[in-house]
Every structure is written in structure tokens, then in C-alpha cells.
Write a structure and sequence with these properties.
heterodimer, A: alpha+beta, seven-stranded mixed sheet, five-stranded mixed sheet, 19 helices, 32 strands, B: alpha+beta, Ubiquitin-like (UB roll), 5 helices, 5 strands, globular
């Protein structure tokens, strides 16, 4: 595998010189944009149907309490209220509970007790948004308070109340134990190490907080028994199947439409109780019902991310050779285990915590517990817990570097898996497909001017200023995944794709995945274009509608390009194969005598004898002869089952200045060099990387879903849950290397979450590097001024 | 109560509840759904529109307070089939991904360029600092607005109509 380092200057050339109308790969303006910049996107809350009613949800004011009684009579008497529903009423229909993505159950509306602040207790359907809200005030719920379990570290203490007493025989708050690697071999490696570094690292609870909150419009037609559901869903097909199972509606009578989606970041993977309430509301009233949560509902009840409390240990020889990594993790899954990950992977892909290094042994043990907090453990662009794994290993490697007095980049370069070692099986059984980590690291150092930065840091240190340089190198495992071992609730993680070439040579391609801003309508048109030679502008991309697209598991875990992108390429090749047979008949030569020149078949050695794909499309639909036994039309469909995951990687360098007087961290520069394999649209890739970097900066410096001792969520609005603005962000610097995935049809690896995964440890490492002269070796996120100040004063506080 | 205002040049009169927010008035009563709603607390700025030529967060203003005033929304940026340079800039420089914050960002950007035709990057960042974009990391938004600044009054803006679907 050879890497092709591309310079930053090279990227700028690519940016400026492209004609913007490539046939295939290259920079191209997005097909989505003309409607979005005119305010003509269609988001779920934009859907207005005749006679539509509005739904609002009453939520628990406390974290843990038994429901004594609920009086809905006053709400029912409100003149504009059409329906009031409680958990007890849902229970009569068998709809009070629904399965989570991890085979746990979650209450749609609480029946016995409430288990987190913000849990759904009842809903109202009324003529307008305001009246529905008014009526919530008229519902009288009597609660009998119970002691809440807030700190995961205490959840397994026998004195703690049992949160999930709904589960038969449940006597504690334990969910699962999981381990990977070889404990004995790891212990042996640690025993003979010259240096061992141990760190307690907390990856606090954060929230995807997309700008568009969750929403649904359910429209049940009583005559034909068909339910149409517009919803903010990253996975419309999986949702439809689950609704069929939960609600008992036949699957062919459910149509899920995910229209334009205002950001997802994993937060729109689960099925929320609000969606089910909207469906129930429409079933009972017989009219369309809209539910749109407000920001506080989104932040307090929507799926959180992270919440891993990790102790990590790293062992090395005295010359800086990493021998082994070991970790013990306490995972806080909230009140219901709603983690989104393949069934056999209860900790997602955390097993890649060995990082990008060729080590001798590794071992991890994870214990997951229930707490009285919002359920989930989904995502926020984390590639199924790879964010936590990468953060752990990259923090440990920098800690080791600082402990040993070896430069952070140098220590990584000494321990990288080498290009010739791919495919490389890690000590936890993951088979990395490709990469040239040294080339990627060196490219990042070149763009950063790494040596000059270190010199500047030393000068500033001598003057008493706190400047830090942080390095991280990540390897992700994305594109879940091979059906033989990956499913979600029994649904295999393969994705379908259909391609139809119309008689005039225009095309429509139908996807199972769903964009939330990633630009699928552009990227997938380019993938098909690259294979079939039709300009992207002539290819319509249909997605986000279960009645009009093939089955597949949706967009999350950076899986769209690795899985669905492969499907799009292969379905186009299948169509091209048929086109070649038709071309041989049209040109009256054998198939073997034809060669493909993107967009046409020509007779080898005779460029004047050729037929374009458009000519062939017309023949396929026309009256002329087709090869013996061939059916008309020019179309195909496939379902792609990935052979392996893909392994994008990258080298990130962060430069920070820390204000000694206030503890404020300023990210001055951030350099991200990514290797996502073959690059389809460099403009979109750069955008994906930028977006991940701002996610990472937010988590590193300010984002935190915090709770007080009573279980009150302290991050319940955008005044409390801080998200970076333009003022906190530097002008991101990007670069790339290209090592195509050997098993992916076009060599693409996925990039949607790379920067979210890779950037937080670079920022923390930079701050730790800045504060190291003060004797500080660890600081937990979010590195707010007060937390940094406390650390400088020698009073660090781990986040709870 | 009855409220009358000018929206995108047209006078509109509607019966509304006194408590109705301007953002809901625009979206639900007038079906101008280009203006979005993203928080309850004036933090996100997806709801920015102009009221009497000033950008305001329409989630923090009652429809009644806009009575007698001129309201301009994203739907009015394009004039006679010609895109505003700000709209063109966002497309050219990948200043949007999901597109949810985009209308509010563009309304603020238009106001900025009307008052400061050649802003520095720092001035652009300051101008949009009351608004949140979760997708782009802001660099491409800054580039988009700078693109618009350098292409104001340019004659080739009409190419925008076919962006993404040109042959």
C-alpha cells in the first residue's frame, strides 16, 4: 500500500481549479444547496397537513419517583384538547414499553415510576401548539420520591435503590460486564515493563444537540390502514421495521419519510417515545398529529453520548517501545440501556482501544450500570464508542511521552503499525485494512511546522507563558458491517441500492441511507457517475422514504460511504455490465473487443466506433434488437454486505495558549490530516472534517451534560449546555494522505466522524502539555476556565 | 388580536393570540418555513429575520410587537430570480451542510455586508457569534461571507440558479 501525501497547497489548488462539474469524483457544488439557501428545504416541523393536531409531552420533574396517581380530567376539559394519554392507558394497549436498540426495554410513557428527570409521563393532543402546552399544566401527577442514583461510581453499592425493578428478578443496577484481549499476557507484559503510566480519564456525558430537535408528524389513514410518518430519522428502514414490531402494524402499511434533517450526529438513530406518542395520537384521533420537542426536552431526554469513566494503564520499555495497554471502564448507560451498537458489541467498537500501535498485549474490562439519567449511550458522531477508545489510548500515549521526556509525535512514530504490516490484526482481534501512519503523521507535522512550534513553546515557557502542543493519531473502524457478526435487533447491517437508467440516459439511484447534512445527494450521484459515466447533474438521488428506497440500516457510524457507497458503485457496475452486452450487439463486436471510456463503450483500437451510455439506454428501452434472451430496460439492484470494516485514520496537532490568570484555553491552531482512502468530493470531505473538529473542540472545552445530586440536569438549555460559536474556533487547517481501502469497491473509508473521534485528545494533550511544567499530568473535559484554574491550583475535580 | 405588518414587501393581516411568537407567526400562519426555530433561549439564531432592517431573533419577539413594522425573511433574499451574493457564497464555499442554521446565518451576513462591505474575518466571526452552526465549524461560513463581499454587484450571479444541476 502506498500513501500519496498531498500538501496543503495541493489541496488549495484542488479547491480553486476544479471546473465544479466533474463526471465522477472531484470538487462539485452540492445538489442539496439550491433549495436550502432559498429557505425551501423541507424539515419535519415544516410539514403542515390539513386538520393536523399538535402533541405535547408531560415530563417527569424529578429523577426517581413512584407515580401515585395521575389526574387528567382538567386537561381533558380544555376546549382545544382532543386527547390525553397516560402510561396506564398505553399499557392497556400493550404499548407502554418499547424495545431499545440494545434489547432492553424503555417506557414510552411511565407506568410504575419515573426513572430520570424529563422522562415521558403523559401526552396531550390539541388543536395548536400553544393549547397543547397549556393543557400539560392541567395534568396533576402525584409522585412519591425515591432516592436517585446519580454517580455511576456508586451505582453498584448494595445500599442503592434498584432503578429497574420493572425487570424480573433485578436486584441491582448492573447491566453487563464485558471484556476483550488477554489479561494474562497483558499482566506479563506489564511485569517486564520499564515504565508504567496510569491515568484516570473521564469522558463526560455530552449531547449531540443538532440544531433541529427531534420531531414527527404521524398520519394514520383509517380507511386504507396506512400510517405515514415524517420523522427526524437517520435510519428510516430500521425504524419502520421496529414500528411494525412494536405497534403491531403490518410493515407494508407503514411509510417512514425522513425529509431534510437538521443535523443528526447519532442523536436521531434511536426511536424516541415522542415518535411513538405521535403515532398513537394519530391512530386514536384519526387525524395527522405533529410532535416537535423543544430544546430543553432535547437536551434532557434525548440520547446522550459518552459517559465513560476509564482507568487506563500503558506499559513501555525504557527506549519508548509500547508493550501493552490495559483499561477498566465504568459505563453509565442511564435509566434504560439504549446504546446503539451491533448486538454482539455491547460496548460498540471500544475494542480498538489499542489505537494505531503495534503492541504485544492488551486487555479491557467494561462494566455498565443503570443510573437515574436519560437513556441512551448512542453516539454524537462516535463510531460506536471509538471516540472513547481513541481518547483513552491517545491520552495514555501522551502521558507516557511526558513521563519519559520523549516528544509526543516521536513516541507515536516509534510505535506505529507499519505500512507493510497491513492487513494488521490487533491484540483485540480487529483487522485494520490499510494505512501509512508515518506518512500521515509527518504530513501533519509538516503543515504544522512542528519543530518551530516546539521552539516557540520553549521560548514562551522561559517567559512563564503557558503554550501547549498536543498530538493525537486515531484509527477508526467504520462501515458496520459484515452480516455474519453485525446486526441491530436482528437486522443485518447490509445496505441495498437500486439504479435505473431512463431511456434518455438520465438516471435515478435509490439509497437505504439518509443524509442529515453530509451531502448524500451529491456524493452518491458522483459515485454512480464515476462508474457509469453519466454526469452527476443527470442523476437523481432518492433517499429517506421507505416506500421508494431499498432496505438498509441507515446513516450513522460513518457507514454511508463504506457500505451504501459500495452498494452504489457495485449497482452501477452491474448496470454497466448489461450495457456492455447491449453495446456489443449494437456495434456487432464481441464483448471482449469493447473497452470502457467513462461514458461510452468503444471498439478497441477504433475510437470512431463507439456507443455512449445514453445511446445504450435508449436501445435498452427501444424497439431495436437486444442480445438473445436479454430483457429490456437498463437497471439493477443489489444488497451490499461488507467484507470487513474500513479503517480511516488521521494525525491531528493542536496548539493552545492557556491564560494563567483565568484558566481560559484558547485553541490557536488546529491541523487535521485525514486519510479516508479514495476521496469522492474533497469539498464535502473538508466540510465533514471541519464539523468534527468543532464537535471535538466543544467537548474538550465546554460541552457537558451535568447533574446535581438530586438528578437535576444542569445542561438543559443552550444557556447551560455550551456549544462553540465562531469566536471559539480557529481557522481549521487540513491536509490528507490517500491509502485506499483494499476491500472497498472504490477504496473509500468514510470520514463523517473522524474528526470528532480524533480531535478531543489532541486538545486535551495540548492543554496537558501546556500545564505540564506546573506538575499537571491530566485534566478532564470539559476544560472550562474554572476547571483549568482548579487544576492549576492543584484542586482538579473529576466531572460527575 | 389583529396584527398587520409588511412581510417581504407584502402587507399581511392576521388574527393571532397576543402571546404568539413572531417565529411561529411566520412559519405557521404565513407558511414561511425558511425561518427555523432551534432553542428556547435566543442562543442558536436559526430564527434570525430582519425587523425594520435590523436582524432579530424571531423566537424572542411577539408577532404583535412586529405590528406596523417591516419584516424580511430568507425567502426575500433572492430577487427576480437572482440570488443574493450571500446565498451564492454559501453554495460556492460549502457554507452549509444540513442547512438548518443557514437562513439565519445568511440574514445576519446580508446585514453585515450592508453595513460593512469589506469585513475582516474577525468582524465576520463577531457578527455571527450569536448564532450556532453544528455542522461546518464556521471556517466555510466565514469564507462564504467573504466570497459574497468580493462578489457584491458582480454580474455573473445568475449562474447560481443551476448550481448543482448544471451540465
Amino acid at each position: 500500500m502506498t500513501a500519496t501525501p498531498q500538501t496543503r497547497e495541493h489541496r488549495q489548488t484542488e479547491f480553486e481549479d476544479n471546473d465544479q462539474t466533474p463526471v465522477g469524483f472531484g470538487r462539485m457544488l452540492r445538489k442539496e444547496d439550491p433549495r436550502l439557501i432559498r429557505g425551501r428545504g423541507r424539515f419535519v416541523d415544516d410539514v403542515q397537513l390539513p386538520g393536523m393536531l399538535h402533541l405535547a409531552i408531560l415530563r417527569a420533574p424529578v429523577a426517581h419517583a413512584r407515580i401515585v396517581s395521575i389526574d387528567i380530567s382538567a386537561a381533558q376539559a380544555h376546549p382545544k384538547v382532543k386527547l390525553v394519554v397516560t402510561g396506564a392507558m398505553l399499557a392497556e394497549k400493550g404499548l407502554a414499553w418499547m424495545p431499545t436498540l440494545s434489547n432492553d426495554v424503555q417506557a414510552v410513557l411511565a407506568t410504575d415510576k419515573v426513572r430520570f428527570q424529563g422522562q415521558e409521563v403523559a401526552f396531550v393532543v390539541a388543536e395548536d401548539r400553544y393549547s397543547a402546552r397549556d393543557a400539560l399544566e392541567l395534568i396533576d401527577v402525584e409522585y412519591d420520591d425515591l432516592a436517585p442514583v446519580i454517580d455511576a461510581r456508586k451505582a453498584l453499592d448494595p445500599s442503592m435503590p434498584v432503578i429497574r425493578d420493572d425487570l424480573e428478578g433485578k436486584t441491582d443496577n448492573h447491566i453487563f460486564d464485558w471484556e476483550t484481549g488477554d489479561a494474562e499476557a497483558t499482566e506479563a507484559a506489564f511485569a517486564r515493563a520499564d515504565v508504567v503510566v496510569t491515568e484516570d480519564i473521564v469522558y463526560p456525558r455530552v449531547h449531540p444537540a443538532p440544531m433541529e430537535t427531534a420531531a414527527a408528524v404521524a398520519d394514520y389513514d383509517r380507511v386504507d390502514g396506512k400510517l405515514t410518518l415524517w420523522s427526524t430519522s437517520q435510519a428510516p428502514h430500521a425504524h419502520r421495521t421496529l414500528y411494525a414490531i412494536v405497534a403491531g402494524l403490518p410493515e407494508h402499511k407503514i411509510r417512514v419519510i425522513a425529509p431534510d434533517i437538521g443535523g443528526g450526529f447519532g442523536g436521531k438513530v434511536p426511536i424516541y417515545p415522542g415518535y411513538v406518542c405521535a403515532i398513537v395520537g394519530s391512530l386514536l384521533v384519526g387525524k395527522p398529529v405533529k410532535w416537535a420537542e423543544d430544546r430543553s426536552e432535547n437536551l434532557t431526554s434525548g440520547s446522550f453520548a459518552r459517559d465513560y469513566i476509564m482507568r487506563g494503564e500503558i506499559a513501555a520499555t525504557k527506549d519508548g517501545r509500547i508493550l501493552a495497554i490495559r483499561t477498566n471502564v465504568l459505563a453509565d448507560h442511564g435509566a434504560f440501556n439504549g446504546q446503539a451498537a451491533p448486538s454482539k458489541y455491547p460496548v460498540g467498537f471500544f475494542g480498538v482501544f489499542t489505537g494505531s500501535y503495534d503492541i504485544e498485549a492488551a486487555y479491557a474490562k467494561v462494566t455498565a450500570v443503570y443510573t437515574n439519567k436519560a437513556p441512551g449511550g448512542v453516539a454524537y458522531a462516535c463510531s460506536f464508542r471509538i471516540t472513547e477508545a481513541v481518547h483513552l489510548v491517545e491520552r495514555l500515549v501522551t502521558s507516557l511521552a511526558l513521563e519519559m521526556g520523549i516528544d509526543q509525535a516521536e513516541l507515536r512514530l516509534r510505535n506505529f503499525i507499519r505500512p507493510e504490516q497491513f492487513p494488521y490484526e490487533t491484540k483485540t482481534g480487529w483487522v485494520y485494512d490499510s494505512g501509512d501512519y508515518e506518512a500521515t503523521m509527518r504530513e501533519s507535522m509538516r503543515i504544522a511546522g512542528y519543530d518551530e512550534l516546539l521552539a516557540e513553546r520553549e521560548e514562551k515557557r522561559a517567559r512563564g507563558e503557558l503554550m501547549g502542543v498536543g498530538v493525537s493519531f486515531f484509527t477508526e473502524a467504520v462501515g458496520a458491517g459484515p452480516r455474519k457478526n453485525m446486526d441491530i435487533l436482528g437486522l443485518g447491517m447490509a445496505d441495498g441500492c437500486e439504479l435505473r437508467i431512463h431511456p434518455t440516459g438520465k438516471a435515478v439511484v435509490r439509497l437505504s441511507v439518509k443524509t442529515q447534512g453530509q451531502g448524500h445527494e451529491t456524493t452518491f450521484a458522483q459515485i454512480v457517475s464515476e462508474e457509469i459515466g453519466i454526469p452527476p447533474a443527470d442523476i437523481e438521488v432518492v433517499h429517506g422514504d421507505t416506500d421508494n428506497t431499498p432496505f438498509g440500516l441507515g446513516t450513522y457510524g460513518s457507514r454511508s460511504t463504506p457500505v451504501s457507497g459500495a452498494a452504489a458503485a457495485l449497482v452501477a457496475r452491474k448496470v454497466r455490465d448489461k450495457a456492455q452486452l447491449i453495446a456489443s450487439s449494437m456495434l456487432e463486436v464481441s464483448v471482449a473487443d469493447l473497452e470502457w471510456t467513462k461514458g461510452a463503450f468503444q471498439v478497441k483500437g477504433d475510437p470512431s466506433s463507439s456507443v455512449t451510455i445514453q445511446d445504450i439506454a435508449m436501445r435498452a428501452h427501444g424497439a431495436g434488437d437486444l442480445p438473445e434472451g436479454m430483457e429490456g430496460a437498463l437497471e439493477a439492484q443489489i444488497c451490499y454486505n461488507p467484507e470487513n470494516l474500513t479503517y480511516p485514520n488521521g494525525a491531528y496537532i493542536c496548539v493552545v495558549d492557556v491564560d494563567k490568570g483565568t484558566g481560559e484555553v484558547r485553541v490557536r491552531r488546529f491541523i487535521a490530516v485525514d486519510d479516508c482512502g479514495t476521496r469522492i468530493n474533497p469539498m464535502i470531505i473538508e466540510g465533514q472534517v471541519h464539523g468534527g473538529l468543532v464537535d471535538g473542540l466543544g467537548m474538550a472545552l465546554m460541552e457537558f451534560i451535568e447533574f446535581d445530586e438530586f438528578g437535576n440536569c444542569l445542561g438543559g438549555s443552550l444557556m447551560d449546555y455550551l456549544i462553540p460559536t465562531a469566536l471559539e474556533c480557529p481557522d481549521w487547517e487540513t491536509g490528507h494522505t490517500v491509502t485506499p481501502s483494499p476491500h472497498h469497491p472504490i477504496g473509500a473509508k468514510g470520514v463523517g466522524e473522524s474528526a470528532t473521534v480524533g480531535s478531543p485528545p489532541a486538545i486535551v494533550n495540548a492543554v496537558v502539555d501546556a500545564l505540564h511544567p506546573l506538575g499537571i499530568r491530566n485534566i478532564d473535559m470539559p476544560m472550562t476556565p474554572s476547571r483549568v484554574w482548579d487544576a492549576i491550583q492543584g484542586r482538579p475535580r473529576p466531572p460527575v | 388580536m389583529q396584527v398587520t405588518m409588511t412581510v417581504n414587501g407584502d402587507e399581511v393581516t392576521r388574527d393571532v393570540e397576543p402571546r404568539m411568537l413572531l417565529v411561529h407567526f411566520l412559519r405557521d400562519a404565513l407558511s414561511l418555513t425558511g425561518t427555523h426555530w432551534g432553542c428556547d433561549t435566543s442562543n442558536c439564531g436559526t430564527c434570525v429575520v430582519w425587523v425594520d432592517e435590523q436582524p432579530v431573533k424571531s423566537c424572542t419577539m411577539l408577532a404583535a410587537m412586529a405590528g406596523g413594522k417591516r419584516v424580511r425573511t430568507v425567502e426575500d433574499l433572492e430577487r427576480d430570480g437572482v440570488l443574493d451574493p450571500v446565498q451564492e457564497g454559501f453554495m460556492q464555499c460549502h457554507g452549509l451542510q444540513c442547512g438548518f442554521c443557514t437562513p439565519g446565518m445568511m440574514m445576519t451576513a446580508r446585514w453585515l455586508l450592508d453595513h460593512n462591505p469589506d469585513p475582516t474575518d474577525g468582524e465576520i466571526r463577531e457578527a455571527i457569534s450569536g448564532q450556532i452552526c453544528r455542522c461546518t465549524g464556521y471556517s466555510t461560513i466565514v469564507r462564504s461571507i467573504r466570497w459574497a463581499a468580493t462578489h457584491e454587484n458582480a454580474s455573473h450571479i445568475e449562474t447560481a440558479e443551476t448550481a448543482g444541476s448544471s451540465s
